[in-house]
């Protein structure tokens, strides 16, 4: 018996007609999911347009014509109207915010000019956006191809939650550049194993290493993805742009999303970004998912399916933080203040590089190439990163993150520039102390 909802069928047929490769990319959940056309939210939206006398549809309380609220809350938020704080935000997000973020995206990524892509859909920050991609495009055994230096949450989101097969390739080649050859090899291996589709996760600036490819390296990534698509594998390319705009040196200063848009029918670009890291509002939990496709019908269907996932999980994102962000984006001081913070972050990154390039630490650790973002990564010599991490905590009261056997991540983003020398001197001392004990 066919149990698929007619709305889901309709969306799938819409995608099949426009681009059958995208339908092949969808997981079983992705095929089954839909946004209810006749549910509470759609009926409430209709009532919002027509029920001018009394609107008794949605589960909020109203008093004297405005959303009911406690004065102990509103007095601290008096700059904002209750209607922009207390009601539910739409599942796809506040419409004005979606428009404002799309405009910002085009300004930040000139390569999007003339490309066809959807309206950003608001997520509960980037982890939620990544989770939506996992739900829509991965099943048990779907290859998820990521660099070997990556954010550990990918494993939880794709591997543990969805049962996808995590496939790792070296982030750097022998020359310390992005390893596009290994990316292509991983995709072709998936094809040889009989996989129709794969997900590629590209996170620039990279967490944990703080690396962003150069323009030339970016083109090699594009070339690798096109070769894979031409070989017959469908590729969902998710650009995790969490640390976007924090580009300090000669690297790409745009997301790969703009270059991927319209590239090949077998390549579906998905941009995952947000205000979290870019605008220094970690606790606001406002992110976005944006799809690119030559077909508006495909974009519409993917938006409906994404709204279905949102409705089935969090229902909608927080309204107040969307309002706060929207007001900030509209403020004439926004870009000036954003640039001021960028300069602080850039100065910290440059200071770290100056400290490390002085050469006095080479018997304790090397560092992986970095040029952007919040982090950089050391490669510890003669001991383990975990032993060094523990020594730094116990003796120096300094916190770092140990990754794997040798890698130690340092977030220069949360250390004042004048304190960075002490951090790296202490790491050096900790490595030497642990080395001495282990001899």
From TrEMBL:
Keyword presence, Cytoplasm: no
Membrane found in the keyword field: no
UniProt entry keywords in alphabetical sequence: Aminotransferase, Pyridoxal phosphate, Transferase
Cofactor annotation: pyridoxal 5'-phosphate
Signal peptide: none
Gene3D superfamilies the UniProt entry points to: Aspartate Aminotransferase, domain 1 (3.90.1150.10), Type I PLP-dependent aspartate aminotransferase-like (Major domain) (3.40.640.10)
Sequence ranges assigned to domain Aminotransferase class I/classII large in this UniProt record: 71-427
Superkingdom field: Bacteria
Protein family membership: Belongs to the class-I pyridoxal-phosphate-dependent aminotransferase family.
Protein name: Aminotransferase class I/classII large domain-containing protein
Organism of origin: Deinococcus roseus
